[in-house]
Amino acid sequence: MTPANADSPDPIQPDSRVPEAIDKQAGQAVLGRFVVVLYQPQDLVNIALVVRAMKNMGLTRLRLVSPAVFNAYRVTGIAHDTHEIVDAAELFDEFDEAVADVVRVVAMTARRRASKQVWSEPAAAAEKLVSSSEEGHIALVFGREDRGLPNEILDRCHESVCIPTNPDHPSLNLGQAAMVILYEVRQAVRRSFDLDERDLSGKTRDQAPAATSAELEEFFGVWEQAMDALGMFRGVEPVTKMRSYRRILKRSEPDRRELRLMEATAWRIVHFATRTEARIRDQIKKEIG
What we know:
By secondary structure, the protein is an alpha/beta fold. It folds into two domains: 19-190, SPOUT methyltransferase, trefoil knot domain (Alpha/beta knot), CATH 3.40.1280.10; 205-288, Helicase, Ruva Protein, domain 3 (Orthogonal Bundle), CATH 1.10.8.590. It is built from eleven helices and seven strands. Strands 3-2-1-6-4-7-5 form a seven-stranded parallel sheet. Helix 2 links the parallel strand 1 (34-39) and strand 2. It is elongated and about 100 Å long.
């Protein structure tokens, strides 16, 4: 397949829209300038894992050089909801064709070669590559699973990126390596631009106001009754024990909903202890009578 000629991205023009919308659009544009190139991938599952990593991190452009097997239907069956990436994937017979329109070619390798090629770790490389993307598209090149990238391909790359791993077992699965690299690229983009992000703040019903001092004191009054009912103060001053309970609870900084749950638990203890004590008294009376 002959790749479509891709002109260098136009600089972002002034826009009358709100700054947040501009920044998000600019951030997505930067991610769109990164092209993931898989050189001779051997396993369809690994291709799918890379596609999933791309979807997770917001990259969309995939190029495959002489894959051993490629079936779009099967890939999307493994990496769900990735049709837009898989359907747009480009296949090439030669590596030079796959990177012909990019301005920087970056090799992902498990180890440094003896040659004096420029190399860096993922975080540092990502920062530099995001800046370089202003000049054009960037190719992130991953080698085949069993051999990595051969020297003739490394010779065509501007630099290499090595993921620091356990020296006794440095090899990473292709999908794992892709996720590490693409995550760092996304993080580097986030530091300069806004991106649409998943809301991790939790459901509204999970967000309760902080407990007030009065509510805390009300709780500790019930808690003291509960602990007394359980016999926690036998042989010790309640004030000393309660001081420890106060420190423990205040360190956790419970909100109002959490405090109410704890208070309800304390009342259950008090009521259970009261009923138990009443049953014991009734049993004693029956035995005496």
